[in-house]
Amino acid sequence: MKILSIALIAGSLATPAFAQQSGHTMPMPMPETQQKPGTGPMPAADPHAGHDMGTVPAPKAQTDPHAGHDMGSDAGSSSAPPERPPPPAAFSGPQHAADAVFDASTMDEAREQLRASLGEIRSYQVLIDRLETRVNDSGESYLWDAQGWYGGDIDKLWIKTEGEGSFGEKVEDIEVHALWSRSITPWFDVQAGARYDFQPNPERGYAVLGLQGLVPYLFEIDAAAFVSNEGDVSARVEAEYELLITQRLILQPRAEINLAVQEVRELGIGSGVNDVELGLRLRYEFAREFAPYVGVSYERKFGETADFARDEGESVDQFSFVAGLRVWF
Predict the structure, then answer these.
(1) Are 206 and 196 contacting, i.e. CB atoms less than 8 angstroms apart?
(2) Residue 112 gets which letter from DSSP?
(3) Which of 89, 134, 231, 235 has the most neighbouring CB atoms within 10 Å?
(4) pLDDT tens-digit profile of 137-189?
């Protein structure tokens, strides 16, 4: 009887446990790849479901930063404020602000020292632009053209000289200029002074008024008018241009024109355009201050000057090969 009672109690305890597992087991969900046809994938759950996110406002339109400002109807209109002269108070103080702190006489002396040290520095340059030999049908000849100056940025003393002749013969032309030069622009100097021709005979002295400088980024110009002690008026214009093939190899075209108002028969000069010389020189700068060159030159006399040359048995035009040296220091 005891054994039967124990068996009945054990059976009554096992029956509810089995019923719990068999009646309440949760089925496992099938993967999407194993879903039944036609059912489609299950929609993903919204992580924010149940939360009140509120209504998102629409972005506001960007406002024009110039709204309300009159920018003018076109490019030609102007809305700039009217221009007025500076107020009188702007001129009420001293001419130099430092004078309000330091003694005016002390500052005058300091400004003069500064002006002298920075604006009145004296320097010089000597340039032998052409020192050359010429070979042509008439033989071999030589020519020099040199100039130098001493002074400051504004005022300078210029000395110029040029001449020519044939080897083994007397020098044909020698002229020397002594000129005071004053800067009138950053590019040009006006020059005035005297010129004296030692050759040819008869000798002549001239008053000189000229202009020398650089047409910005173009030609170097040296132009002068002359009035001799005999009242003869003449002029000369020289122009050069430097074309850099490399930093050291430079091609230089050059032109020179001589003119006269009156005929001067004893000097072989006629009125009008006397002669024109055109040259082309190629130089190599071993240093900026030292440059040998080779080139060609063509000279042509005109009008009465050409007639005087024919009367003397001279050629009116001549083509020459040239070789020379350009030096400056």
Answers:
(1) yes
(2) H
(3) 134
(4) 989 999 999 999 999 888 999 999 999 999 989 999 999 999 999 999 989 99
The Cα–Cα gap between 134 and 127 comes to: 20
Helices and strands counted in the chain (H then E): 3, 13
Given a cut of 90, whether residue 36 has pLDDT beyond it is no
Q: What percent of the chain has pLDDT over 70?
A: 76
Q: What is the largest CA-CA distance in the chain?
A: 177
- Give me 221's structure tokens: 């110009």
Q: Which tops the pLDDT comparison, 274 or 63?
A: 274
- State phi, psi for 183 to the nearest 5 degrees: -70, 130
Q: How far apart are CA 35 and CA 43, in angstroms?
A: 13
Task: Give me the residue label for tokens 């050409």.
Answer: 306
Q: Work out the pLDDT band at 94, boundaries 50, 70, 90.
A: confident
Q: How many whole angstroms separate alpha carbon 293 and alpha carbon 296? A: 10
Q: Is the dihedral of CA 269, 274, 279, 285 positive or negative?
A: positive
First CA to last CA distance, the chain:
145
In the DSSP assignment, the letter for residue 25 is: P
Rg for the chain, CA atoms, rounded: 50
With a CB cutoff of 8 Å and minimum separation 6, the contacts of 304 are 263, 269, 270, 271, 272
Q: Please report which helix (H) or strand (E) contains residue 326, including its range.
A: strand 317-328
